[in-house]
Amino acid sequence: MTDRLTIRRPDDWHVHLRDGAMLDAVARYTARQFARAIIMPNLTPPVTDLAAAIAYRERILAALGGATDFTPLMTCYLTDHADAAMIARGYAEGVFAACKLYPAHATTNSAHGVTDIRALTDVLETLQRIGMPLLIHGEVTDRSIDIFDREAVFIDRVLTPLIRDYPALKIVLEHITTAEAAAFVAEAAHPIAATITPQHLVINRNAIFDGGLRPHAYCLPVAKRESHRLAVRRAAVSGSPRFFLGTDSAPHVVGAKESGCGCAGIFNAPYALETYLQVFDEEGAIDRFEGFAAEHGARFYGLPLNTGTVTLVREPVAVPARIGTGDTAVVPFHAGETLGWRLER
Ligand SMILES: NC(=O)N[C@@H](CC(=O)O)C(=O)O
Ligand SMILES: [Zn+2]
Ligand SMILES: [Zn+2]
């Protein structure tokens, strides 16, 4: 039995660091676990241009106190007015690592998102030409579609025609939750990959209703039934280079979660590696953990692999019930539970 695992320093290919006091409170958790992270741009207002991305990157580094070996990789929030030339310049200058597509009103802070991706031909052609990844929150926003079906319907209605029309467009389907998404990404004859969160490997939709309404188990895409969780787990541990780590850590102050209309998002940054490794351990796939956590994503993005290592040890770690106080009080994923691996560092 492996009791100690040393792997190349991993990256988080999907995280929400927020802004202001919350950024100051949460940034260090991600920087402690990961060498780099793809920073989601859904601030208010969203990060839609170079100046905003540069300023946000500075605020992230400032929140880490300056001396840090963590690299934030910035993304451009696409709107109906996205400017292809500006995006291409941002990519060439190393400001943007990717573009993020939020279908308008699909999730937290997506009101400025795209109403019809098909209308963004200039942007899509440009991304395809320059090899810049398009990151997608893959849910339809049609309120007549059952919320548990919105990812699968997005694949049929939006993603399938998109890859047909842009055969070389690099796509990351973010935070997949369904057997349909896992199969689509595994099998498509297309440069497509997917991020997988800790929570979608661990919980199914029962967790949201376990003895009462559980707002801290609510995120988008919403957790699905057990058969989907198992399919997503199989994809994560499969060894396929198309699946990689993206926490989707999405902190909301406790009062915004425990509310008559609770926000979507699970804050998992403090113990993300511990959760993922526990899953790989349970699946007898510890040998595939490094690929998922530290190699597949970098290769897909065309970025160098990290140097340096992190070590996890098989030791109990108690997750606190709450982290922070006041405006930054958040309930972490696994609050009050004990995990079986601990990140040393
Ligand atoms: N995942 C979530 O439930 N919430 C994210 C947005 C997102 O990633 O869709 C957030 O910003 O809070
Ligand atoms: Zn999302
Ligand atoms: Zn997210």
UniProtKB/TrEMBL annotation:
Q: This protein's superkingdom? A: Bacteria
Protein residues bound to Zn(2+) 2? K100, H137, H175
Residue numbers binding substrate:
H16, L17, R18, N42, H137, L220, H252, A264
List keywords of the entry alphabetically.
Hydrolase, Metal-binding, Pyrimidine biosynthesis, Zinc
Which EC number(s) does UniProt give? 3.5.2.3
Listed under subunit, the entry gives: Homodimer.
The entry's protein name is Dihydroorotase
